[in-house]
Write a structure and sequence with these properties.
The chain has 12 helices and 10 strands. It is an alpha+beta fold.
């Protein structure tokens, strides 16, 4: 039997042992290739996995599933299938709602562009039945990266508290005219952006009620330095005053509650302790409206960033609008008067939150309306009478002052 020469056999390991230079070159080439591949490898915290599924949700309240399927779902499906990159369309129709699921082809890389095209097609659907819609297009299931920003107002700084306390202290001493014994001041403070009239209105109602109940005597209004309230004579304790105020707010004010930006109540007996009493209840420096404006600016700024897909704001306090004057209601009354139904217009303290310019415009409109019927305006504030006299003809207005017997 003839022995095989090991030098003539094909062996990779033996080849590199016998040719060490080639082995070292191949090793360094492999290492260089690995380093080059690692440095050029795409890296991201969240892997880029294209989402190919989206939903189109269309409500139609009070309608059965078969009608929703026929009149809504089919039209949505027809609009979606207008895109040639759609792989599959599945729909689920129930009473009151239609849900259509869309899946794109697996070879589509730019899914966002196709979803935008489908969204535009859905927005062009104009023949949905009355009461159906709008079509809600949800295509951002793959957006997993999120950033949460919390915006909060700082508290009132010590310097501002000191300035407010100085003004309130001087105002209390001026109102009391040297009589300090047995008198109490109750105030609410608020940001400078809030109109004082919003706080003065409920205090005017509270003062009248407290005098009728015998809880307070010789009530005097007090408003200075973004703080408003009343100063009165009473023998009640601080706890009794606070309990009476809470009971009044719950039972009497109803929708005329104190402004949400107001902080208090601040109960002051000795004017020298004004700063300490204000510091005990000092709250936010900025109003809810200002925080709403700040967060709205942040939202609009972030929406201009190309990498941002969606920006949402939560926790914003809904803004309340107090309707002081409605031309539609006056128009409805005018129609009633033309039909022979003479209805008077009676308004009770509707101009408390208006400045003098706006109150004057409202008085002019009411004066024009009073040409064909009676208009009665009640108010606790004497300066509104002067505003009415400046803006309404002398023969069109009569001021009647009611005094308690």
């Amino acid at each position: 039997m003839k022995a095989e020469n090991p030098n003539n056999s094909r062996n990779v390991a033996r080849f590199f042992v016998n040719n060490r230079q080639i082995a070292w070159v191949a090793l360094f080439a492999t290492l260089a290739w690995g380093v080059f591949g690692y440095m050029n490898m795409p890296k991201r915290k969240d892997p880029d996995i294209p989402v190919r599924i989206a939903l189109a949700i269309t409500p139609w309240p009070g309608i059965s599933a078969d009608k929703v399927e026929q009149l809504v779902t089919r039209k949505v499906e027809q609009a979606i299938t207008g895109n040639s990159k759609v792989d599959r369309v599945e729909s689920t129709t129930q009473d009151n709602i239609s849900v259509v699921q869309v899946r794109l082809l697996d070879n589509i890389k730019n899914t966002q562009q196709e979803f935008q095209d489908i969204g535009q097609r859905l927005n062009q659907i104009t023949d949905l039945p009355d009461g159906a819609g709008p079509v809600t297009w949800i295509s951002d299931f793959g957006d997993t990266a999120a950033l949460m920003l919390t915006v909060a107002s700082p508290t009132i700084p010590d310097l501002e508290i000191a300035l407010r306390a100085r003004g309130v202290q001087d105002a209390i001493q001026k109102v009391r005219q040297g009589v300090m014994s047995g008198r109490v001041a109750v105030l609410y403070c608020y940001p400078a952006s809030v109109s004082p009239a919003v706080i003065e209105r409920p205090f005017a109602i509270l003062a009248a009620q407290a005098e009728r109940d015998g809880f307070a005597h010789d009530v005097r209004s007090l408003s200075v330095g973004s703080c408003s309230g009343i100063d009165f004579a009473t023998n009640k304790s601080d706890e009794e005053i606070r309990a009476y105020g809470q009971q009044f707010v719950q039972k009497k004010l109803q929708e005329y509650d104190f402004h949400p930006d107001a902080w208090g109540p601040i109960i002051i007996r000795d004017p020298q302790s004004t700063k300490d009493r204000i510091a005990e209840v000092a709250n936010n420096r900025y109003s809810f409206r200002q925080l709403d404006d700040f967060t709205d600016l942040i939202q609009r700024t972030l929406q201009r960033v190309p990498e941002v897909a969606k920006v949402q704001r939560v926790g914003v306090l809904p803004e309340e609008i107090y309707l002081e004057y409605s031309d539609s209601r006056l128009a409805a009354l005018k129609l009633q008067r033309e039909r022979g139904v003479d209805l008077p217009v009676i308004l009770d303290d509707v101009l408390m939150a208006s400045d003098d310019v706006r109150a004057g415009c409202i008085f002019k409109a009411l004066a024009n309306f009073s040409a064909s019927g009676q208009v009665v305006v009640f108010t606790h504030h004497d300066h509104l009478c002067d505003v009415a006299r400046r803006n309404v003809a002398h023969d069109a207005i009569a001021v009647v002052e009611l005094r308690r017997a």
